[in-house]
Amino acid sequence: MKKTHKTGPLAALKKHPVLATAVAGAVLAGGYWGFYASDLYISQAHVIIRSTEISSGQSFDLGSLLGAANSADRADQLLLRDYLLSVDMLKKLDARLHLREHYSAPEHDWFSRLGTRFNDTLEIEEFYDYYLGRVSVEFDDFAGVLVIQAQGYDPQTAQAITAALVDDGERFMNELAHNLAREQVSFLSKQVADIGQATLKSRQALLDYQNRHGLVSPQASTENRAGIVNALESQLATFQTTRSAMLGYLMPNAANIVELNLQIAALERQIAAEKAKLAAPEGKPLNSTVEEYQRLEMLASFNQDIYKTALTALEQGRFEASRTLKKMSVLQPPTLPEYPLEPRRIYNSAVSVLMILLAAGIVHLLAAIIRDHKD
């Protein structure tokens, strides 16, 4: 009796174990992605950071004409991105939204949920790696905006994570700017106090100098004495002219000539005395007194100008420390997703099947090569 051989798919699978394994793997992969994988909802927001500082002039920026973000704003947004993806941000979100419980809930599929350990013993490093896989913060260099995305197993949680990132991000940027402004205020307050003391000392030195010399203004005193000397010299010139004219018809010993000579001599003595006072009052030249007074006055005026500038800077710093320095403009508020975008079931199933079949083909080819060498 002739023995019949069974033909068909099952017989072919039994004859080729690699193919059977590949088919089984493809079925499992398709079943996982098609039925078992948990839905993930994605909420996203678009934000941009702008400085509220009012500048006196606007500089020409070629980058802004080409559509690129301002360098300062770009640096702020990259700084914000680093903060939103930090461990500190993860801890705040976990304390506020209980992310551990949400991501590790047993009703989610085993492969996508957070770890396999108890929540209390899960290391922060593992939790942080998982967080980076569920939260994305990318800077769009062309549009100059920050795109924030968060994944959750339900729409409300995904939206809550994104909203918390936006709110805490703006608070962080303003707190960072306020800390810098407060440090500047502290520094300026100390400088204002020191400059104020220096100003008071210079003003007091000027007052002491005035009191010591009995002069409110040496410059004015010098000008007054010079005016007196000029008036006396003018009067002396008049008398000398009169005497010269009278000598034309009177004798030198005439009474009028003698009187003029006495007046001229008195004026010359007075002029000499005034010039002596102008040059050296009480043994010290008046011009030296004026020079020293002007130096003290200039120092006092200089310190006062610096004090005014420091006070203006201090008030400006206090104003900066109390207002919103960085404004986060929300171009797109956190969305409430209506359809799970992850996982991409058809795409992931197709890719998994292709990868499994490719691996099976490679194994089958290697096995054929080995058999040929044995034969």
Automatic annotation (TrEMBL):
Domain of life: Bacteria
Membrane-spanning segments: 346-370
GO cellular component, one term: plasma membrane
UniProtKB keywords: Membrane, Transmembrane, Transmembrane helix
InterPro entries according to UniProt: Bact_polysacc_biosynth/exp
MF-aspect GO terms: protein tyrosine kinase activity
Stated name of the protein: Chain-length determining protein
Protein's organism: Methylovulum psychrotolerans
Higher taxonomy: Bacteria, Pseudomonadati, Pseudomonadota, Gammaproteobacteria, Methylococcales
